[in-house]
Design goal:
Layout lengths: L21 E5 L3 H13 L3 E5 L2 H9 L5 E5 L7 H10 L6 E6 L5 H10 L3 E4 L4 H25 L11 E2 L5 E2 L1 H9 L9 H8 L1
Parallel strand pairs: 1-2, 1-3, 3-4, 4-5
Antiparallel strand pairs: 6-7
Length: 199
């Protein structure tokens, strides 16, 4: 008797991302803040809260937040101005999601995009929609981290010690540093080379 074919178990659904991001939520309305923090934590992220833009700026200055979810209208410094301030500073890229209870007109969308806003959401925030936007934020942050690592690598010839610039042109290391970092070199001879070459 021929045994019936063994059936494979159905494929399990793709696991939800286990990467936890530290997110700064900016909301001045207590009930809305509790709801937003609850949604962020239910999505598996660490969420900190600031009640106004000035407090948020102080928290961002301490570092650690790569994603901001901010109401457009918050006291002290509004969400749009806070985003401008973040874009003007140096450091790791911060993904910025702006939320608003009002319909965002085309003109205001253009203004927000010019300020550096990455995404928009309507209030009250839908948990599934926020989860999808945060998934995109996670990918963007991952890409920026990879680019930063690549930019920190300086190709150097193992023989002549010339370095390759962004234009794929090989130049003397002194010339490269003088042009890109303003470093000036003074030439001398180290003790090892003195003994090897001069003696």
């Amino acid at each position: 008797m021929i045994a019936p074919p063994r059936l494979r178990p159905p494929a399990e659904p793709a696991a939800r991302s286990t990467t936890r991001m530290r997110i700064l939520a900016i909301e001045d309305q207590p009930v809305a803040a509790i709801q937003l923090l609850g949604v962020l934590k239910s999505l598996g992220h660490t969420a900190d809260h600031a009640k106004d833009g000035r407090e948020a700026w102080r928290m961002l200055a301490r570092g650690g937040h790569r994603v901001v979810v901010s109401d457009w209208r918050v006291p002290e410094i509004d969400g749009l101005q806070l985003c401008r301030m973040i874009r003007e500073r140096s450091g790791d890229y911060v993904y910025f999601i702006l939320i608003s209870a009002l319909k965002v007109t085309r003109e205001r969308q253009i203004e927000a995009l010019a300020a550096g806003v990455d995404d928009f959401l309507r209030k009250p925030v839908d948990p599934d929609e926020l989860g999808m936007r945060l998934h995109v934020a996670e990918r963007i942050i991952g890409f920026t981290n990879q680019v930063k690592k690549l930019e920190s690598i300086l190709p150097i010839c193992g023989y002549c010690k010339k370095v390759r610039n962004d234009g794929k042109y090989w130049q003397e290391i002194e010339e490269y540093y003088a042009k890109n970092q303003g470093t000036r070199f003074s030439h001398g001879i180290c003790p090892d080379c003195y003994r090897r070459v001069m003696v």
